[in-house]
Amino acid sequence: MKIIIGNWKMNGNIQQKDKITRAISETQTDNTIILCPPFTLLNGENHGVKIGAQDISNHENGAYTGDISAKMVADTGAKYVIVGHSERRLYHNETNEIVHEKAEIAIKHNLIPIICVGETMNEKESGKTADVIKNMLEQSLPQSESGEFMVAYEPRWAIGTGKTPTMDEIESVHKMIFEYLEKNNREKTPILYGGSVNSTNASDIAKIPHVDGLLIGGASLETETFLPIIKSVK
Ligand code: PGA
Predict the structure, then answer these.
(1) Using a 6 Å cutoff on CB, does residue 34 contact ligand 1?
(2) Maximum distance among all alpha carbons in the chain?
(3) What confidence score (pLDDT) does residue 143 get?
(4) For position 146, what pLDDT does the model report?
(5) Which residue of 27, 210, 227, 230 is surrounded by the most CB atoms within 10 Å?
(6) What angle is formed at CA 151 by the lines to CA 206 and CA 197, rounded to 5 degrees?
(7) Spacing of C-alpha 192 from chain mean position
(8) Nearest-angstrom CA–CA distance, 4 and 20
(9) Distance CA 227, CA 76 (A)
(10) Contact 79, 112 (CB under 8 A)
(11) Torsional class of 77: left (φ above 0), alpha (ψ -120 to 50), beta (otherwise)
(12) pTM above the 0.90 mark?
């Protein structure tokens, strides 16, 4: 039983969301499926599928033109929000500090933040993966004792590239993340893997120790690619 999250990024429309949520609701699975479409699709018919946003503001409300608050997302009925995705960190200069604020404000409004961490290819090649991830965990995760959250390990170089780490590499990073969470009495926190997951590699990756689920971009956009993943993962 795993958690499978679809991150639609800046893609999709009402018809596509209707089609895929209906298809997910008709699929036999023990997995928990969460769809994160753009803000414009958070409302409306979800056919009972759990919905999350892809980002929130680090502010409560106010003069932040174009931004969407945690409360607004919670108002739509969504229960989850991705924070600190590498595309936000890269294109919107989001620091660990901002990601931390977003995680805290999400929890305050009863959303479960899915906090993304991951190294660049440069960092990987210079043997810094463990240090980079540990630093991101230390600085991005919420301090609050109360709320639940999830951690997604997404190597930046694996996102949308068709490249994935080896099974051993995923295992070692997930083990490190688990040990970090355990040390902080957060050992029940789900740890997801993301980056070029598809129907061929999903079930093997999901079997790796301490992989509690998958965060899927490109392959979550169409029923033809998303449903086989949902069905293959046990
Ligand atoms: P991808 O994206 O599955 O298209 O590599 C994953 C993500 O960015 O969450």
Answers:
(1) no
(2) 47
(3) 82
(4) 73
(5) 230
(6) 35
(7) 7
(8) 14
(9) 25
(10) yes
(11) left
(12) yes
Closest CA to 150 of 165, 159, 137, 139: 137
Strands (E), the chain: 3-7, 32-36, 50-53, 80-83, 112-117, 150-153, 191-194, 213-216
The residue among 143, 144, 36 whose CA lies nearest residue 83 is 36
pLDDT in the model for residue 88 = 97
pLDDT score recorded for residue 145: 74
Cα separation values, 133 from 16, 39, 154, 208, 219, Å: 35, 28, 10, 19, 25
Rg (CA), the chain: 17
* DSSP per-residue string spanning 115-160: EEE---HHHHHTT-HHHHHHHHHHHHS---SS---EEEE--GGGTT
Catalytic residue among 85, 100, 174, 210: 85
Q: Is 109 marked active-site?
A: no
Task: Let me know if 100 is a catalytic residue.
Answer: no
What per-residue confidence (pLDDT) applies to 177? Answer: 98
Residues of the chain with pLDDT under 50: none
Amino acid 144: pLDDT: 67
Burial of 16: CB neighbours in 10 Å, binned 0-12, 13-18, 19+ = middle
**pLDDT for 38:** 98
Selection from 49, 25, 27, 26 nearest residue 37 by Cα: 49
| Among 191, 204, 197, 203, CA closest to 220 | 197
